[in-house]
Amino acid sequence: MQVSAPDRDQLRYLAELRLDRPVVLSLYLNLDPSEFATPPARKTAVRSLVDEAERRLRERNGLSHEDKLALQASLERATSFLQNDLPTDGAHGIAVFTSEPAALFEALKLPRGVPNQVAIGHSPLVGPLARLERRERWCVALVNRRDARIFRGSSESLREIEQIHDEVFGQHDQGGWSQSRYQRGIEKEKDDHLKNTGDALMRHFKQQPFQRLIVGGPREVAADFDSKLHQYLQERLAGRIEVDVEHSNADQVLDAARPLIEKLERDRERSALERLGERGVAGVDNVLPPLHERRVECLLLDEQFGGVPGVQCLECGWLGLEGERCPADGSEVVQLDDLTEAMIELSVQQSAELLPVRHERGALEEHGGAAALLRF
């Protein structure tokens, strides 16, 4: 099981899975090494999460006896996995989605810590995964003549995912023909190293695409590296940074990259907000209808958005601020304490981009923290 944020295909697969009964159990377990580095600490975390799931199952109203038995069986399977097969190597979190009636059991190792969470519903809870995917959209590649390091993350944090070292010998200090030939050999070794690094970067991109790429290292080597990248990666180049390739830690790399990342994020937010007047809507009550109609291209949410209550149709997933019956099919609706996760789930189902607004939050305040760019 690979440690990575889920890609768009995984997110959409989970978000589109919707059963006619609330028999899907979603569990998120925080394994941040700063808090859960030892086996006893992880065991306590698992026990706490399982206890919460058991409590939620006991207190969940409206479940038939058959559904309770199905959920209990799903919880037992998840508990066995977490207690006996918990994959901790490199994982900062675990997400488990299980439903015995749907023959569903998905476990994902996550590269970042997530708050412990339990959900019982008609479909997997994908909101935390969507936020995690968003936080892995930047890539930073550091490269010199013999070493390279690759990082993933955002302006909040970076994590190192690969180191590459290739032997490139020093220059020959003798003159004449032998020096010229030796120098050509050195250049070939350097070019091979840059190619190896570019190939590794492309593998990571294929496994989990990133939106923007920053390159750091000696200016001449970085420029040479840029020119050797695959076209897909060249299209995502966002700029360069000055940083010690071999000795900088992740925080130092982030300090060097953050100004560039934040500038481009701010530009992206401003561009999206400016386009709202052309083909967008603002305000939760105006965002919900196009979300249900699958017309949303980009969902903009204030970084602190949450706590907005509403209702959801049990049959089709329709969302509204109030009501007792779904206007689409007349089915019963259920009360939701917070619409956030359901809104994100609907956006994932239609392959819409999720854009948390961090730098231009004031522009969304008058609209309750939510807006959307529409496809049509």
Quick description:
The protein has 376 residues and is α+β, with helices and mostly antiparallel strands.
Verbal overview:
- The chain is of the alpha+beta class and 376 residues long.
- It has three domains: 1-125, Translation, Eukaryotic Peptide Chain Release Factor Subunit 1, Chain A (2-Layer Sandwich), CATH 3.30.960.10; 138-272, eRF1 domain 2 (Nucleotidyltransferase, domain 5, 2-Layer Sandwich); 276-376, 60s Ribosomal Protein L30, Chain: A.
- It contains twelve helices and 16 strands.
- The chain has helices spanning 8-16, 39-59, 65-84, 127-134, 176-207, 219-228, 231-234, 250-274, 276-279, 284-292, 340-349, 362-365, and strands at residues 24-30, 93-99, 104-110, 117-121, 138-143, 147-153, 158-165, 212-216, 237-241, 280-282, 296-302, 310-313, 319-320, 333-336, 353-357, 370-374.
- The chain has a five-stranded mixed sheet. It has a four-stranded antiparallel sheet with strand order 3-2-1-4, covered by helices on one side. A four-stranded mixed sheet has the order 10-16-11-15.
- β6 and β7 form a beta hairpin.
- α1 crosses α11 (340-349).
- The longest helix is centred in the middle third of the chain and has 32 residues, at 176-207.
- The radius of gyration is 24 Å and the shape is globular.
- Residues 171-177 have low confidence and may be disordered.
